[in-house]
């Protein structure tokens, strides 16, 4: 059924039937539709389900192919259940990789996020619900300038929204507007999805009327809400024509689902299986020669119940690490996402590292403060692995293949969203275009592991880069050779810099990537194509994206900090200023120094008065240099030697007023 036919049916429907559809709880009412629309529909077409690995795990694969395999598996489950959608996928970007919620996101980078989002589609028409943190999450008081809004927050939806089967508004905020309450925010986002894509609100039993956007299917709405909504339309508080726009989308979803379920699924959908992401998503962060280990005498410490085969492999409690050490000791860290790695575990790792080869395996979907655990000889991040056998396989020879889709900092307060020190840039509430590696890679900062980072058990060499450009794309061609003695998987990444364009922020930006396997000694020719739309910047003055002409540098590397080859090319097109220039906002062009914009600069970018609110988060203020120096000096005199790494970590990360007094133990 096409939209024109649906639009012809809606005027024949009673208001009560429309309300039944809008507030349908977890299913579309077939009876309500058949009474007025004379359409045969089955119940249960609106829910979505199917388990999905952490989105951050898919991000670690840097693979659109693997993302597509996961999508087909979920689509097969949805098809078998007669559901309209294969599931929900976040289309926002990470702001804080150390929060537990970071596991729901693909990446801190909008380009990588968009490429993976576009892979969440199947040829059977079962798409995904793009949801959660379309904006700035729970930060109601954060302000964004026009470029950050369009090049960061809205970019993934802009690039991939047309493949979404639905758009769900959550409780997050976008430039101070609560998404599920604001009609303006809803209209801004709805334009990126198809006209027949359903629009949903968050799932909640007590949805308030003022949160209803006028075009949404209310998940979990109860009878009281439906009655309140009915009265609001009758009284003119909600215009019925706006309600009808939501009805169009709901009916289109229901009818499309019904018609799809009458046909045979494709062979690919019928044969879809969930791919094993254990090795593909695991990232080797550090390796001081401990891996791959040749010994079979491996002692495992952790919580056996957290792994499907923990008992079979004899995983011992971490509390026994002191008296049960082996030739190689592996700490399996699972309980860290809320409060970080416990001091007891950090102590056990530090003590074990001092006497025997030690491997730390972080099994979860987000980063964490490693603290004293950073002393281990090897560190492995496994966001999709609760299988001890797979971990042992990786540390004994089959190298992890993942790469970090975010920047891993030493401390949680290193991320701008969490640290008041960034008030030195200006307004604490302000969030700029510089997020993640775009900030850490271009301005002075301390990073533990950069974006795109991931070690292997072999080495790679990238040859000379050849570039070609026209008005629509830049093509990079180069050779990649495995120079080691083992086979491996390499992710080649292309970062773009506008050499002479009068615009800030177009420096070392990811614009292309590819993943390939190379046998020992093998060499392959790689071609990366950078579309002009992916290197465009937002021109707020004319409300459009523009690709600037001029000279561009393309850096090819294995991470944002590991660049192996570079070349320059000229792109045809107009060359003109976009947004704030170097004279107006010099701090935004001051690469390789501290990122500290002044209040006047921020006022010009936001076009609103600057309000300093540093005192709002005084609890996050970092300790002063004097406090740190005195506390560490005291600790070195009074604390046991093996505890020093943990104590120094605490001193460096805890605010002044919470700085611990150091006592002899």
What structural keywords apply?
five-stranded mixed β-sheet; Immunoglobulin-like; TIM Barrel; 25 strands; 19 helices; 26% helix; Rossmann fold; disordered C terminus; alpha/beta; four-stranded parallel β-sheet; 665 residues
Tell me briefly what this model is.
The protein is α/β, with parallel strands linked by helices and 665 residues long.
Secondary structure elements and pairings:
Blueprint (H helix, E strand, L loop, with lengths): L2 H7 L5 H8 L7 H8 L17 H7 L2 H18 L6 E3 L19 H9 L9 E4 L11 E2 L1 H8 L1 H6 L3 E6 L3 E2 L2 E2 L4 H8 L7 E4 L21 H12 L5 H22 L5 H4 L7 H4 L1 E5 L10 E4 L26 E6 L9 H11 L4 E5 L15 E4 L6 H8 L12 E2 L20 E2 L5 H4 L6 E3 L10 E3 L3 E4 L3 E10 L5 E11 L10 E10 L4 E9 L5 E3 L4 E3 L3 E8 L5 E9 L27 H8 L18 H14 L5 H10 L12
Parallel strand pairs: 1-2, 2-4, 3-14, 4-7, 9-10, 10-11, 11-12
Antiparallel strand pairs: 5-6, 8-12, 13-15, 16-18, 17-18, 18-21, 19-20, 19-24, 22-23, 24-25
Helix pairs in contact: 2-3, 2-10, 18-19
Structural account:
- The structure is a single chain.
- 26% of the residues lie in helices and 19% in strands.
- It is α/β, with parallel strands linked by helices.
- The chain has 4 domains: 3-262, Glycoside hydrolase, family 3, N-terminal domain (TIM Barrel, Alpha-Beta Barrel); 283-400, Glycoside hydrolase family 3 C-terminal domain (Rossmann fold), CATH 3.40.50; 409-616, Immunoglobulins (Immunoglobulin-like, Sandwich); 623-658, no CATH class.
- The protein has a 5-stranded mixed β-sheet. A 4-stranded parallel β-sheet has the order 1-2-4-7.
- Helix 2 (15-22) crosses helix 10.
- It is globular, with a radius of gyration of 27 Å.
- The termini are far apart.
- Residues 36-40, 423-427, 613-621 and 655-665 have low confidence and may be disordered.
């Amino acid at each position: 059924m096409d939209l024109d036919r649906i639009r012809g049916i809606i005027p024949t429907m009673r208001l009560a039937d429309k309300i039944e559809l809008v507030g349908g709880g977890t299913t579309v009412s077939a009876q309500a539709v058949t009474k007025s629309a004379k359409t045969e529909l089955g119940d249960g077409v609106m829910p979505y389900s199917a388990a999905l690995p952490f989105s951050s795990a898919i991000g670690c694969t840097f693979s659109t192919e693997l993302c597509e395999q996961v999508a087909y598996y979920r689509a097969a489950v949805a098809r078998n259940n007669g559901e309209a959608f294969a599931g929900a996928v976040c289309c926002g970007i990470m702001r804080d990789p150390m929060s537990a919620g970071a596991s729901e996101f693909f990446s801190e980078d909008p380009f990588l996020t968009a490429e993976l989002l576009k892979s969440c589609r199947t040829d059977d028409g079962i798409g995904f619900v793009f949801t959660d943190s379309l904006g700035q999450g729970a930060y109601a008081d954060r302000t964004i300038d026009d470029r950050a809004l369009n090049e960061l927050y809205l970019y993934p939806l802009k690039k991939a929204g047309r493949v979404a089967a639905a758009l769900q508004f959550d409780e997050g905020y976008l430039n101070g507007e609560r998404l599920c309450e604001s009609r303006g925010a809803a209209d801004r986002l709805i334009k990126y999805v198809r006209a027949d894509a359903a629009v949903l609100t968050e799932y909640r039993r007590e949805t308030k009327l003022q949160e209803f956007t006028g075009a949404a299917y209310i998940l979990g709405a109860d009878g009281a809400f439906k009655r309140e909504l009915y009265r609001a339309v009758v009284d003119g508080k909600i215009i019925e024509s706006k309600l009808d726009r939501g009805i169009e989308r709901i009916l289109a979803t229901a009818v499309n689902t019904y018609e799809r379920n009458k046909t045979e699924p494709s062979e690919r959908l019928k044969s879809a299986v969930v791919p094993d992401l254990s090795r593909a998503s695991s990232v080797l962060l550090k390796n001081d020669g401990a891996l791959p280990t040749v010994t079979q005498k491996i002692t495992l410490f952790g919580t056996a119940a957290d792994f499907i085969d923990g008992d079979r492999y004899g995983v011992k409690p971490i509390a026994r690490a002191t008296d049960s050490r082996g030739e190689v000791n592996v700490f399996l860290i699972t309980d860290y996402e809320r409060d970080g790695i416990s001091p007891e575990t950090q102590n056990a790792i530090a003590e074990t590292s001092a006497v025997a080869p030690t491997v730390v395996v972080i099994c979860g979907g987000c980063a964490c403060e490693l603290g004293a655990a950073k002393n281990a000889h090897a560190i492995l991040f496994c966001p999709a692995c609760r299988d001890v056998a797979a971990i042992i396989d990786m540390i004994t020879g089959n190298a992890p293949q993942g790469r970090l889709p975010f920047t891993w900092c030493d401390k949680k307060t290193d991320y701008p969203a969490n640290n008041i020190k960034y008030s030195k840039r200006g307004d604490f509430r302000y969030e700029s275009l510089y997020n993640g590696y775009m900030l850490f890679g271009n301005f002075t900062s301390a990073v533990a592991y950069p974006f795109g980072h991931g070690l292997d058990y072999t080495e790679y060499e990238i040859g000379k880069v050849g570039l070609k450009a026209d008005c629509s794309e830049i093509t990079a061609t180069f050779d990649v050779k495995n120079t080691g003695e083992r086979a491996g998987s390499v992710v080649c990444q292309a970062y773009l810099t506008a050499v002479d364009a009068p615009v800030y922020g177009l420096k070392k930006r990811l614009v292309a990537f590819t993943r390939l396997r190379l046998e020992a000694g093998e060499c392959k020719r790689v071609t990366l194509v950078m579309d002009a739309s992916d290197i465009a910047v937002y021109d707020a003055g004319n409300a459009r994206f523009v690709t600037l002409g001029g000279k561009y540098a393309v850096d090819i590397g294995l991470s944002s900090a590991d660049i192996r080859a570079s070349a320059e090319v000229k792109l045809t097109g107009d060359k003109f200023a976009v947004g704030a220039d170097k004279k107006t906002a010099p701090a935004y062009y001051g690469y390789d120094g501290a990122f500290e914009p002044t209040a006047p600069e921020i006022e010009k970018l936001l076009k609103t008065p600057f309000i300093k609110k540093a005192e709002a988060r005084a609890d996050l203020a970092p300790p002063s240099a004097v406090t740190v120096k005195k506390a560490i000096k005291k600790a070195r005199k009074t604390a046991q030697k093996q505890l020093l790494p943990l104590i120094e970590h605490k001193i460096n990360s805890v605010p002044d007023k919470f700085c611990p007094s150091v006592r002899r133990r």
